[in-house]
Amino acid sequence: MKENKRIHNLDKKITRFSIRKYQGYGAASVAIIGFILMSHMQIVLILIKTIVRMLTQ
To answer: What keywords are assigned to this protein (predicted)?
Structure first.
């Protein structure tokens, strides 16, 4: 019984830690993903422009 309670408390601690960790990194990860997507969009647009120029010459 005592062992079971200890495992349960440990499980609660791990869950609480994971939730806190994700809350901390949530906004940062969204910002980083957005930045990466925006930078890739610039690259994609440049590639499309160069392909169009090559095809129209």
So the answer is: Membrane, Transmembrane, Transmembrane helix
